[in-house]
Amino acid sequence: MAPTLPLALLVALLAPGLGVAFPGCDYPPHLWCSSWDIAVACQAESRCANLSRPTSAPPVELSLFYESLCPACRWFLVQQLFTAWLLLPSEALSITLVPYGNAEERNVSGKWQFQCQHGPEECLGNMIEACLMHEAKNFTTYFPVIFCLESGSSVTRNLEACLQVYAPQLDGARIAACVQGDTGTELMHRNAQLTQALDPPHQYVPWILINGKHTDKLQEQAQTSLVGLICHLYQ
User: Fold this and answer.
1) In the chain, what are the domain boundaries?
2) What SS3 state is found at 197?
3) Which one of 48, 56, 80, 169 has the lowest number of neighbouring Cβ atoms within 10 Å?
4) Cα–Cα–Cα angle for 26, 32, 37, nearest 5°?
5) Nearest residue to 74 via CA among 190, 184, 205, 230
6) What pLDDT, on a 0 to 100 scale, did the predictor assign at position 3?
7) What is the per-residue pLDDT across 38-55, written as a single tens digit (0 to 9) for each?
8) pTM confidence score
């Protein structure tokens, strides 16, 4: 009489493409393709044609309301936000930048005028970054340029140099025309409206929203370890 093979070994021999279980796989081979999680645990994803890869979770949404010359804003953008963007997979984090902060606007003879916490140069820096975003459209194009501006010696005088390094395809003259024209004013007015619509109203900058919400705890966690916070929240 032929020796009897254990069921798990028999299935392993007969199941096409399936073999010995990997460490961490506590399932018999005939179950390896019963779910995506089990297939991953047993490193059998490529052999389970009947399974579809699960759809990825939505990204964690971070909105940063800031001012171009605010020291704390610059530190967060350069040290935490840019680093997180570089380290995390693109599907895990979605970033919105709103340069305005504690500025004030008023309508003078039908034209919007702005007064910024750190003076006219900050208003110019805010508008440069707003126009840069408007012209570039793509976040992966303009964010490195904003990082360059905020980490450098001057937010308002280094645009051409930062463009040459990080986005040479962008036309600095078009950005300058935006800053000097009506488009830049309208962009800043929109940022003013977004900032004024915050609920709860912002009390300081940087003001950070995570998935549309602001709490003191989320703000502290974001400023302490943004990568850790995003990894904790991303499902």
Assistant:
1) 60-233
2) coil
3) 169
4) 80
5) 205
6) 47
7) 888 888 877 887 777 666
8) 0.78
